[in-house]
Amino acid sequence: xxxxxxxxxxxxxxxxxxxxxxxxxxxxxxxxxxxxxxxxxxxxx
Length: 45
Fold this sequence. Notes:
Elements: H1 2-44
């Protein structure tokens, strides 16, 4: 019975970690896109 009570809290923690991972991944991808565009612009100059 105690394991059933603990599972929802573990699931909530996993959801929080997944959200943080998504934020990190999206920010990294955004930074890479910005860097690539800057490099392309500088190369064209």
